[in-house]
Design a protein that fits this description.
single chain, 173 residues, alpha+beta, 2 domains, 3 helices, 6 strands
């Protein structure tokens, strides 16, 4: 068994849609390499600084992510690699392991789908795009969706007709 602590540059495609590791940024690896009968078991943690934008207000954000990793690398010709259908097992090539795909998979799968700058981020106004954290408390718009304008016109015609009927009924009594 051997423990390894290294800082390596992040590959270019270690990101999601809104957040990820900048290419070349530091990945801090704290790994344990264990010899097993099938090959080498690599386990440990990955620490990385993420940069991106808030899913609600689109402000830039940075955060830290720590991910656990565990990957088995088998010797070529081992019966385990012949039975492997889901590519969860790597191969030892000339007594070396290629950790990059395993590191990428672990980090990308742990990325938040909708990162937020803070848990109570109110986001953006859907009508004008203003940051709701920066506007007054009662911010709103009285604009009617044009698809509903015809219904509003019908409703106002019926209200006018009903009010006219009430006035006529009141005058007759």
């Amino acid at each position: 068994m051997r423990t390894v602590t290294r800082t390596v540059p992040a590959p270019a495609d270690m990101r999601g849609v809104l957040i990820g590791a900048l290419p070349g940024s530091d990945l801090v690896l704290d790994l344990r390499l264990e010899s097993v009968s099938e090959g080498v078991l690599v386990s440990g943690t990955i620490r990385v600084t993420l940069t991106g934008e808030c899913a609600r207000c689109l402000d830039p954000l940075t955060s830290e992510l720590e991910v656990d990793i565990q990957q088995l690398f088998v010797y070529p010709g081992n019966e385990i690699d012949a039975d492997d259908e889901d590519d969860e097992i790597g191969l030892l090539v000339d007594d070396y392991v290629d950790l990059e795909p395993a590191l990428r998979d672990a980090v990308v799968l742990a990325l938040p789908l909708a990162p937020v700058c803070r848990e109570d981020c109110p986001g953006l106004c859907p009508d004008c795009g203003a940051r709701l954290a920066d506007v007054e408390a009662g911010h709103g718009h009285d604009e009617v969706d044009p698809r509903w304008a015809a219904l509003r016109a019908i409703g106002s015609e019926q209200m006018t007709a009903t009010e006219g009927q009430r006035i006529t009924d009141h005058q007759e009594s």
